[in-house]
Design a protein that fits this description.
16 helices, 4-stranded antiparallel beta sheet, disordered N terminus, 6-stranded mixed beta sheet, alpha/beta, Rossmann fold, 3 domains
Length: 566
């Protein structure tokens, strides 16, 4: 085999990524819940409930039993609960926005006890929750809401709510029950322990991490003081006193060892070296998840009830508004057939997609159709008559530019062509437009005018460089790919396009590999990644490539810090 060898494109897709009840997940037990886990689990549960109310049961074979574990992802929810009607990628981005705002509180307001419900700043925290909740609802009830701002406010609100369950003695009194009055103006709070009341007794020794039964109060709310924050714990010599105010506890809280009562009451983790009340971590997390879910879908106080289904969907970016674009040329029968078959398969997986089709005819004029009716798009593609006498050079970039101008931000365009571009002067304009609109372009070259013969002579290689290599540059810059196929590969290419258009995830590695080299590719995966899809696609444009070669896809669920080696 020559140096061109058989090469494969390998894609590694990160589907769901996670962060920090604590600032991050590193070194935490796998069973622990972070702010990311709590927020994501609650939103997924809320949206599953939303979908079950909105979509007739049985239409997509959905189950009414919502998976409440960490295994429910945006992808699984879209496929199993929402019938493919949810934009997985945009939905996950909305969740990520809320989680980032949640975790950002630890950085921006670390020293302010009320943001973390520490130091018995419970009333102040409740006032902060009310203001954040009301601000988010007011923003969303505007005629033209700033959804990004609303997600930021919601993330901040949820941080304080979730900290209430980790840092106060509510779980010690009520288990995983939701405190409905929290953050609701006009609802009375449970009495808070007065400043003069001792709330904890010291743990058995200064080095004892087991603080079981150290709370002295029942029926009054209290929370632990933490060193470095603006609510200082009353000083009391731990050698002379066994009772005092509770500390937060943990290795970074010096107040838990220097002032009575020693120890603490935080439930951030199930690791006793991090959390004195580690044994209540699960109950605290369950309460936080339930309260977070209720924030979104409570029948009276829930966000969905207060702003309506339409804005609720827009807030979480649920609608499938991202477009699917096809650029085809009248002289390309294989491209037209691939587009037609791709639309058919996309329609079988999802509903209500926004299609944009731009075609170029013999006179270099363009025809445009935009529709959410897949059948109309199919009918249009059927009317295109291939012209096999069409000369190779075309206004491919101009046609792509036209399509890009009609797409929703964050969409994908599939350019199906057998022609090299004859309008190279548009390259810079197209590249800038793709970047500004965050569009991804996939090129499917159907061989007729791109030399892929067995003999790679000098002139033929030059012609390939002028076309395929330019397409490859645009694809790479936009996060897309270039595929080469022929008649036997139409079905498989349509499957690739359908999967690309209907699934979410971030590409974390893409590379061409010469299999003759016997190369091992180690991929270190940390425990912030839950699922990886490995896709191997034969490049039919290189010597030895077979366009009918199957696209091999394998999905694996990872254990923490697993090393993948291909």
């Amino acid at each position: 085999m020559t140096s061109f060898g058989l090469k494969f494109v390998i894609l590694f897709l990160c589907v769901v990524c996670v962060l920090g009840f604590l600032p991050n997940r590193f070194n935490l037990p796998s069973s622990d819940f972070t702010h990311q886990d709590i927020t994501e689990a609650a939103i997924l549960s809320a949206v599953a409930d939303f979908c079950q109310d909105s979509i007739p049961i049985g239409k997509f074979g959905r189950s009414r039993d919502v998976d409440s574990s960490k295994q429910l992802t945006a992808k699984k929810l879209s496929q199993e609960y929402c019938g493919g009607t949810v934009s997985e990628k945009r939905f996950q981005e909305a969740i990520d926005d809320i989680v980032k705002a949640n975790n950002r509180v630890d950085q921006d307001h670390y020293s302010e006890a009320a943001w973390h419900v520490n130091g018995e700043a419970i009333k102040e925290a409740n006032e902060k929750m009310m203001l954040l909740r009301e601000a988010s609802v007011d923003e969303l009830n505007k005629s033209m809401p700033d959804y990004a701002l609303a997600r930021h406010l919601i993330g901040q609100f949820l941080h304080v709510v979730q900290m209430f369950y980790s840092n106060t003695n509510w779980p010690e009194m009520k288990g995983s029950a939701v405190y409905d009055a929290l953050g609701i103006r006009g609802e009375p709070l449970m009495d808070q322990a007065p400043f003069s009341m001792d709330t904890c007794r010291s743990c058995r020794s200064l080095t004892d991490t087991l603080c079981i039964g150290n709370l002295l109060v029942d029926g009054h709310l209290t929370s632990g003081y933490r060193s470095g924050q603006d609510r200082r714990k009353p000083e009391r010599n731990p050698s002379l006193h066994q009772t005092g105010k509770c500390s937060h506890g943990g290795p970074h809280d010096t107040s838990s060892t220097t002032s009575a009562a020693t120890g603490g009451i935080n439930k951030d983790s199930s690791d006793p070296s991090l959390s004195p009340h580690y044994y209540l971590h699960q109950q605290a997390a369950e309460g936080a998840i339930r309260h977070t879910t209720a924030f979104f879908i409570h029948p009276v106080y829930g966000l969905r009830h207060l702003i309506g289904d339409g804005k609720f969907g827009e807030l979480l970016q649920l609608p499938l508004s991202a477009s699917i674009g096809f650029v085809v040329h009248a002289g390309d029968s294989l491209g037209i057939a691939t587009a037609r078959e791709s639309v058919t398969r996309i329609m079988s997986a999802t509903e209500g997609r926004h299609y944009v089709v731009v075609s170029q005819d013999d006179s270099d004029s363009t025809d445009v159709i935009t529709s959410q009716d897949g059948n109309r798009v199919l009918q249009y593609l059927t009317t295109l008559e291939p012209n096999t006498s069409r000369p190779c050079p075309s206004l491919a970039l101009t046609t792509l530019e036209t399509a890009a101008g009609l797409m929703d931000q964050g969409s994908k365009i599939y350019v199906l062509t057998n022609m090299k571009p004859g309008d190279l002067d548009r390259w810079g304009h197209v590249s800038a437009l793709l970047t500004r609109m965050k569009l991804s372009v996939e090129f499917v070259l159907t061989r007729s005018c791109v030399n892929t013969s067995q003999k790679h002579t000098g002139p033929s290689r030059t012609r390939r460089s002028a076309g395929a290599d330019l397409y490859a540059g645009l694809a790479s810059a936009s996060g897309g790919s270039v595929y080469t196929t022929d008649k036997s590969g139409v079905g498989k290419m349509s499957d690739i396009i359908k999967e690309s258009a209907t699934t979410s995830g971030a590409t974390i590695l893409k590379m061409a590999v010469d299999i003759t080299a016997g190369k091992s590719i180690p991929i270190p995966i940390d425990n912030t990644i839950r699922e990886v899809t490995i896709k191997i696609i034969a490049d039919a444009g290189l010597r030895g490539g077979n366009p009918s070669t199957p696209c091999l896809t394998h999905t694996v669920t990872l254990s923490p810090w697993q090393l993948l080696e291909m």
